[in-house]
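Example record for the data management plan.
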Amino acid sequence: MERPQEEERVCDVLVIGSGAGGLATAITARKHGLSVIVIEKEPVYGGTTAFSGGVLWIPGNRHGKTNNPADTREAARRYMKAETGNWFDEGAVDAFLDAGPSMLDWFEKETAVRFVPTLYPDYHPTVDGGVDVGRSVLAAPFDTSALGDDLKRLRPPLSTITFMGMMFNSSNADIKHFFNATKSLTSFAYVLKRLAAHAGEVARYGRGVQVTSGNALAARLAKSCFDLGIPILTETPALHLVKKDGRVTGAEIGGKQPRLITARRGVVLACGGYAHDLARRAGVYQHLKAGTAGHYSPVPDGNTGDGIRLGEEVGGAFDAEFPQPAAWMPVSRVPGQGIFPHLLDRYKPGMIAVLSNGRRFTNESESYHDVGAAMVAAGEASAWLICDHRTIRKYGLGHAKPAPMPLTPWLRSGYLKKGRTLADLARTCGIDVGGLEATVADFNRGARQGRDEQFHRGETSFNRYLADPDNKPNACVAPVELGPFYAVKMEMGDLGTFDGLKTTIPGEVLDRQGAVIPGLFAVGNDRASIMGGNYPGAGITLGPAMTFGWITGRYLAGIAFEKTKGENAA
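Corresponding structural encoding:
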């Protein structure tokens, strides 16, 4: 709960932003004896974390070791070195690998945060040091009624990835039951029970309270804050940082009660990056600079680069230097409902993505970031995801749901395009007719034997992970041949930005000369990513965000960050 104004003016640590990085820092600092205030400019807390998949990439975590003994620290380091290339930061990577498993154990022991193992492979498991399972963990489901009156301030999940407000994990058995509801009495009964329970929650609380994924992680972190007496002050923007004698000592706060908050130990920037800073991204994103496409990010609208701006105002160094400045996500615009991220459909057999010339341009079953990068490299930064009638009724397409849900609403709104033949579909979408017909013919020749002869789809464990294991012989590949045919336009979006303020390993913000700005720290997407603009596995944003938040919180409490024998210990 929020505290009276007179208790809010002085603290040891002021955290600006309420996503995973900021809340992890706040909890850690408080557990080590510091007084902490968290401020959030929006009326809801949880940041981008509440919209996310809630997955953390933590090599060597205790949950994953039972799944894959090959997940050693040495292998993870080789993998990160191969993935980050010229951007490999030895000190930061070593700190992450050393501290990550300890951070995970600490939060599970000391707070309401819990995780469960996943079977996610690394996104590039054939690269040196990559593994087929074990490095990613998922926030355990949570009953948010435990938040009491603060439930109403928890950011709801992204509406376009829920079903009537209900949440599912991508690996959850719930999804299979909903897909099979018309084919299995067991699944039908399960779905009815689930719907009834959800309706009861909405009637009592105004929203579903059984949450998963990032909403569960945000809720668990917030519950831990409230349990520790840490206020999360919403509708409370930071206007400017206060700097005295070269040291950042607090911030001027706006909102309903403008005031100065003094922070004795430090101010932590945790505002989520610049995904909706229109001016900054226009000068950084290649497809926007080229004027070839728009950009439609599904992350919260409040991620307008406030932390980076505040840091720069007091001399902090920011450079847009990574080859891929953001975690790309192909999205589609759903009329009247928002942005849909294409997280699952691309992997399914019977779907292909083509450019306006009708040609495929990438392996559709690679990660969202890789597919997005391929869209940018293709020069159009948009593509059409195409399938036939059998495929859409089995898996859905984009926001259009599988049978028994009718397709009419999506067709009527124009979101979903339909053609009796491939030529009809191409003309409707503005795709080259000959190019599409030739592409599908070429693809189908191999697909009938389960092969993707052009891009080798389905040949890695990651390709197959979100596909259909019942589709033989290749879980990712089936022909596109039984009309009518359907298409959804995918455009460029992102899950957050990679470029951020330059910091030391414990998170101290650096100026242009490489000197520490005393009293100022950055975590999460306000801090430059250790991944160098690449996306090597599920949870490479939240894993480092919480790990370095933990390191920063301890550092603020006076626990020195030490380096011995070439390895970093938090």
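Summary line stored alongside the record: Residues 458 and 476 are 5 Å apart (CA to CA).
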